[in-house]
Amino acid sequence: MISKVRLKLLRILMLSISVLLVMILVATNGIFAAEKQTITYWKSPHGDETALNQAAFEKFEKENPDYKVEFNIVSWDGLDQSLTAAYIGSNPPDIAYIPDEWAYRYAKEGVFMELGEWANELKGSYPENVLRMGEYKGELYGIPYLVATNALIFNRALFAQAGISGPPQTWDEYIETANKISSPEEGIYGTILLNFGAASRGGGSGYVYWTPRFWEAGVQLISADLKKALFNTEGGRQAVQFIVDLFTKHKVAPPLQQYTSDQLTDMVYKGKAGMWYYWPMVEAIYPNQAPDLDYGVAIPPKGPVKQSMWTNYGFLFMAQKSKNKDAAWKLIRVLTSPEITGPYTQALMLPSPNIGVTWDEEDPFMRVFNQGPAISDGIPKTAHLREFWELLDNQIKNAVYKQKTVEQALADAEKNINSILDGS
Fold first, then answer.
1. Is 317 among the domain residues?
2. Do 346 and 287 fall within a single domain?
């Protein structure tokens, strides 16, 4: 029979064990709670991304306490190579920001998660034509995050000196205006096509400039099945001839290959350019780089068919191999919410594709750039986009250099591009 003393000691021992177990359980739960799962997000910088994204990450982690965001800022020069290696491997970023010029190539490789069911939550948040830009072959993979547009910028002082009251409304008025302003002997040109044929950057690529000219002439660049070039038409020839004439017939643009990109930009800063095309960040750049420059902004002039504007997008993509897809989608929803993407795009001076963001409609300057998505045809959604641009750009330059006629240049471009188009 157990004595009273032994019974008391046994009870004390049992109580101590119980207390110890509770302490272990509490400590263990604390350890488990601290081990949050990670959502990785890769993006190349448009600004101080760490500071700009702080509010988004804090909101996501507050709403999803079991997760934390690991943010990797990847240099633009290294983005394509880094993403390629990551998607080949077993642990790609859950979310990646990728511009359209690379996006469709990755979509072809099947590395993105199709977002159809999740994207139903976004109905009404984007114009339908904008949301479709994130599709590849009928499936939605990317959510539009940033949009970049190129509007016509004009020098008010040079316009006033030439007796011109406002920006040109048609191609003919554009040429007439450029002729009135141009004075090459004084180093003044009616128009400058920044980066097109610049002596640096391997000759410069002008697709940001010439792509909308095709749209303005009513030309689609590639067939819907991504198998055939469509630009070798009467409208296509009008578009290229318009560009060629700026350099050869009217001589209102600086000759190709005689100036670097920096020199062309310097002409703008010094008030030596009448018209040029540029991004909305001019409102932040010019007051610092060219404080005396009096400039205005306008929608590009109407071509034979319509007005248009260069517009391209950057998207948020979820990796097919993501191990936390639901949480990754929740982060995408936070990043694209008006309360987050509004201040973010405003800080970058870029229009927002989200209908719920209004700051870019309230700013008269930004309102012009914000019209791009509505009047743009959208760049071709082909995995061969970069090769397409290079091949057509080279042939347009051949026409400007008078090495080929416009007709021969477009015929050669059509032949070369058709050889790479394969429906992807």
1. yes
2. no
